[in-house]
Every structure is written in C-alpha cells, then in structure tokens.
Amino acid sequence: MSIWKLVVRSLFHYGRLNLALLVGVALTAAILSGSLVVGDSVKESLRRNAKARIEGIGFAVIGGDRFFGEGLADRLEQRGDVNNVVAPVIQVVGTVATPDGNVRANGVQVMGVEDRFWSLSGGGNPIPETVREEQWLAVNEALAGRL
To answer: Alpha-carbon torsion 82, 88, 92, 95, what sign?
Structure first.
C-alpha cells in the first residue's frame, strides 16, 4: 500500500470528522474576521466623534491643582501663538446641592467659563441672552434630574 493510497483511505474513513473540523475552522475564521472589521469600524467612529468634539481646540494647558491667571490666555492670543480663540477655563471637581440642602451630588465636574469659551464650539452660547447675567449656572439633564 502506497502512502497516497493510505492518505486517501484515511480521508474517506474520517470524512465526517474532517468535514466537521473544516466547518469549525471556517466558522472560527469568519467570526474572527468579522470581529476585526467591527472593531476597526467602532474605533474609527469613536476617533471621528472625538475629533469632531475637539475640532476648535488646538491645545490645552492644565495646571493640575494650581490655576493660571487669565492674563496667560490674553497674552497667548495677543502674541498670535494660536490660530483662533484662547478661552480660559477653570475646571474642578465639586459638590452641588439644592438650596435647602436636602439633595446633593458629589464628584460633579464644575467648569467656570466666560463668553470666549462658547466660540470654540461654533454653535455659540446655548444660554439665551435673556437668562444670562453676570454669573449663572447651567447643569446637564442627568444632574438636573438628580437634584
């Protein structure tokens, strides 16, 4: 019996097992390929969304637990080191409570901004002129619902 005859007989004898193995390998390859394609698609979508959100922002200077003076933003804008608007922002983690103090939310991101900040989004200030005063507070829907 030659080696090729042994191989052919072995393939026919174990034909069902070989077919099951072939189907399993093909299914596994299809699942892995699909997962890679979906993963790349999700990654690209997230990248595009992130880029769209920060489109007007060239760089950010974060002071950690220290603050920069507002004059730094003014000096950067006057020197022309940046192409567009320089908007100073104070960002801290704080606590928000109702006036009577019965309900409060800890670990809230509190941002202090001025009018220059709203020009970064291109959509303008979302707070109507009639509501704006010298100092005002805007909260998102999740925090408003909690309070």
So the answer is: negative
Q: How far apart are the first and last CA of the chain?
A: 85
Q: How far apart are CA 53 and CA 65, in angstroms?
A: 25
Long-range Cβ pairs for the range 81-89 (8 Å, 24+): 82/58, 83/58, 84/56, 84/58, 84/120, 85/56, 85/116, 85/119, 85/120, 86/116, 87/113, 87/114, 87/116, 87/117, 87/119, 87/120, 88/114, 88/116, 89/113, 89/117
Instruction: Express each pLDDT in 49-104 by its tens digit.
Output: 888 877 767 677 777 778 887 787 777 777 765 566 677 888 888 888 888 888 88
Q: Rounded to whole angstroms, what are the CA distances from 112 to 74, 88, 129, 146, 147? A: 17, 9, 18, 21, 20
The kind and range of the H/E element at 34 are helix 15-53
Contact 111, 60 (CB under 8 A): no
